[in-house]
Predict the structure.
Amino acid sequence: MQYPIDDLTPAEQARLAPHVTHPTRPVFGLVGLPETVKGALFARYSRYPGTLRRLFLDEFADSLPAPGDGAEFDGSEGERAAQLYDRIFLGYGDDSVAQLGGLHVAAEWCSNVLTKVLQRPRIGAYLEQSTRYIAFDSPVTAGSWLGDGDVVSPTGRADGAEPGYRYLRDPSLGPVYAAAMDDVFGIYARLIPQLTAWCAEQYPAPDGTPPAAHERAIKAKALDLLRGLLPASTLSHVGIYASGQTYEGLILHLLAHPLPEARRYGRWILDAVQAITPSFVTRVERPDRGGRWVEFLQERESAADRWAGRLGLDAATAAGRDAEEQRATVRLVHVDGDEDDLLAGLLYESTAVGEERARATVAALSTEDRGALLADLIGERENRRHRPGRGLERLRYRFEIVSDYGAFRDLQRHRMLTIQWQTLTPELGAEVPDEVVLAGAGDDYRHALDRSAEAWAFLRDAGRPKEAAYAVSLGYRIRYTMDLNARAAMQLIELRSGREGHPSYRAVAHEMHRLIGEAHPAVGAAMRHVDRDTEPRLERILGEMRTEARANPTADA
């Protein structure tokens, strides 16, 4: 094959060289340019007859500083890019152009209520601090503190409070809340060495296990057993990578949120995006655009709350719940599609007929032929990353789940599904892990849960039902639904059933698999990499051994 090359002068080649990964190939990356300039270049693709290299030189290069002239971008988008976004994004309302650039934003010192709001957009990538690898037992110390209005206090907390454990501190929540959180964190910190010692005794290192790997696994086990004590007010750090369009939606939802913390972070994320790619969020502060959008979101939530109250669906208390609701449950509440849909879908891209004919043809097959067809279309699947084609997405499942909030936090990160959750309260109860009881820490664990529930009740009775969730420990249960197709279910279940995972979400994955197997036996059987190993062993040991082997490939030589 022969591909044309742009006819560029030496000066043009030099101007272009710092911004493309290859000078002549038809495939190349863009580097050293603001995200909005990259997005604007792609936005022009649809109406520009030439190549991207030519487009950059003709329409964008003159509005950007040349490399080596001492100028820096400093968040400048370039006049041409800004004009293009203003015309397409605002004038034409073409939101897709904001999908063409992305940026990284760090959001630190967020509560574990806010982290779930930050991670709600589907089209984005997120990482947050792990309760498995980080102990939240040390007081927060700093040389200076940032207060309201970005006021920096160089000698102590701007609100006058003493530095303490790592939870959201708001004087308006009152001393009862603060005292309870201090008690909960104090118990958590005191139990870490006790549980670590017990785990080390119960789970000695298997032969050949590197000591460092075993030590990390023991720590992870102890922290896993105690993470249910941490309240949702626990402060974490979140890294976000997303497109401009995703940031716009996230910021608007944060600005409309009932929690002051969420609105504050919405403002800060807006400032961060404006400092890098202002054109992506230019609509947010316009009263007729972002302002009205925020009002709509607030009106929508208010209407749902109002109707839930009118229908008597918001006033259930722990005393009114049945036994089924007082324990962890996974229920398959809706199923779409059957085996004929599955077979026709898996075949569809290789056929040259309409869907009705394909479906009728597979429906007429014998049981033996259907089995052989499905086996071939599913494939050998040597590991969990080998998944069948998109035809598997013809089938859908909706689960209603009651699990501890810690398990929900992990499952909520999956993107290819619709997840809705109710407000976190202690009303669905919590369990003390068996190992904690065996380690002699059961009474302390229960006391911490009780203190959490007392603080929640205080805030609820004080008219702060939304903020009351901050006081609830992660071990308390929450109700949520997950609606996903069979292909997404395969990915989630095979990943989350792994023996290295936390037992609470492993249990959810196992039950989802069982229920799918009852509804669609062929789909359940296709999930060949569900890990049902329940051997009493340290969940993380194999994962830590693999990590150690990669870090020290000659350790066992």
Q: What stands out?
A: Strands lie at 102-110, 124-128, 145-146, 152-153, 236-243, 329-336, 396-404, 418-421, 477-485. Confidence is low (pLDDT under 50) at residues 70-75, 535-546.
